[in-house]
Design goal:
SH3 type barrels; alpha+beta; 9 helices
C-alpha cells in the first residue's frame, strides 16, 4: 500500500470515527440521563412496594416504584383540581407558612415550582444582549421580570431583572438588575439562545447560520474584492 493511499485511508477512518461520535454521544447521553432519572425515581419507593406486593403474592417488577410515584403525583393532581381538595390544600398551605423555618423553605420552593411548571408565563421571557462583565464585552441573558420598584427608587432608573446563565450549565447563574436602556433585545428564541450558551457558542441560531452560508456561497472563503462587488 502506497504512503498516499495509507494516509487517505487513515483520514477516512478518522472522519468516520468522529462522525460516529457526533451521532452517538447525544443519543448515549440522553439515554443515560433518562435511565438515571428513572432509576432514582424508581428507587424512592422500591423497597416499600416490593415488600407490599410480595405480601399480596404479587411478583414485583422493575419500574414498580417509578409507576407508583407517577400514580401518586397524578392522584394528588386530581385531588388538587377539585373544590374540596383545593380547600384542604389551602389549609395545609397556611399551616406550613406559619412555621418559622419551614415557611421560608416551603414558600421559596413553591414559588419556583409554580414559575417553572404552571405554564401560565415563561420564566425566561426574552433573550437579550448587554455589556458584561465590562464595557465592550457582551453577554447573553434572559429577561425574567420588569422593573423592580425598590431598585428604581434607589437608582433613579428603570431596571430590568435579567438572568445571566453560566456555560455549559445554564441552571446556575447570576441575577442582574440592568437599566432598560442598556439592554439590547435579540431576535432569537429563548430555546436557540440556551443552545448557544450550553454549546459554548458552537451551536449558532438558525438565522445566523443562514447568514454565514450566504456569505460563503457568495464570496467563498476569501474576502470580496472590488471586482467581485462590481460583478454582484
Amino acid at each position: 500500500m502506497s504512503r498516499s493511499l495509507q494516509t487517505s485511508v487513515w483520514k477516512k477512518l478518522r472522519i468516520w470515527f468522529f462522525s460516529g461520535l457526533i451521532v452517538l454521544i447525544p443519543i448515549a447521553t440522553t439515554i443515560y440521563i433518562l435511565w438515571f432519572l428513572f432509576s432514582k425515581v424508581d428507587g424512592l419507593l422500591k423497597g416499600v412496594f416490593y415488600k407490599f406486593s410480595s405480601s399480596l403474592g404479587l411478583k414485583p417488577f422493575p419500574g414498580l416504584g417509578f409507576l407508583t410515584v407517577m400514580l401518586i403525583i397524578l392522584l394528588v393532581g386530581i385531588f388538587a383540581s377539585n373544590y374540596i381538595g383545593r380547600k384542604i390544600l389551602q389549609i395545609g398551605d397556611r399551616m406550613l407558612t406559619r412555621v418559622p423555618l419551614v415557611s421560608s423553605i416551603y414558600s421559596t420552593i413553591q414559588k419556583i415550582s409554580q414559575a417553572f411548571l404552571s405554564g401560565e408565563k415563561a420564566v425566561l421571557r426574552q433573550a437579550v444582549l448587554f455589556e458584561y462583565p465590562r464595557k465592550g464585552i457582551y453577554s447573553i441573558g434572559f429577561v425574567t421580570s420588569e422593573s423592580w420598584s425598590e431598585a428604581k427608587r434607589k437608582t433613579g432608573k428603570q431596571t430590568i431583572s435579567v438572568f445571566l446563565p453560566t456555560t455549559p450549565n445554564p441552571t446556575s447563574g447570576y441575577l442582574l438588575l440592568i437599566p432598560k436602556e442598556d439592554i439590547i433585545p435579540l431576535q432569537i428564541s429563548v430555546e436557540d439562545a440556551l443552545k448557544l450558551i450550553v454549546s459554548g457558542g458552537s451551536v449558532v441560531p438558525p438565522n445566523r447560520m443562514r447568514e454565514v452560508r450566504l456569505e460563503k456561497s457568495e464570496y467563498g472563503t476569501e474576502p470580496p474584492t472590488e471586482a467581485t462587488r462590481e460583478h454582484t
